[in-house]
Design goal:
mainly alpha, elongated
């Protein structure tokens, strides 16, 4: 499956698209806006980081891994949306880059070190952002 959102440029029979029109439907866009590969990178790296002596997470290391992931998202999505010689789909690059901190926020990670962090609020933010982002349709032919 291509990571680029199909906007109607070329017909496709891929899952998550409407088939003959070559346009990703809501579910197809929802999946493609989620930076799953970079969230997976974060989760793997966070799982490797040893805890402190009193079983406290190493928040400094988690912030560093989070920042690395934040840098990787636009780079990854730029490459993913330019495969086949197409220009980058900037709206997808930007929305995926915004979605990454929201996903890490929902996971907890380094944000759990902040006094104001509440996991239920983070979950609601994730729910809202994911649903709203998938409503955005890039312009046809982009």
């Amino acid at each position: 499956m291509s990571r680029r959102i199909l906007t109607g440029r070329a017909p496709s029979m891929m899952a998550g698209s409407s088939g003959a029109s070559g346009v990703d439907d809501y579910l197809g866009r929802l999946v493609k806006y989620i930076p799953a590969e970079i969230v997976g990178f974060y989760l793997t790296a966070a799982g490797i980081i040893p805890q402190g002596p009193n079983k406290e997470p190493n928040y400094t290391a988690l912030w560093i891994v989070f920042a690395l992931g934040l840098v990787l998202v636009p780079v990854y999505f730029w490459f993913a949306t330019t495969r086949g010689g197409t220009p980058p789909l900037w709206s997808q690059v930007i929305l995926a880059t915004v979605a990454y901190p929201v996903w890490v926020f929902a996971i907890g990670g380094p944000f759990a070190s902040l006094d104001w962090y509440k996991s239920w609020i983070a979950s609601l933010v994730l729910l809202f952002v994911t649903v709203v982002f998938a409503m955005y349709k890039p312009p046809q032919g982009s």
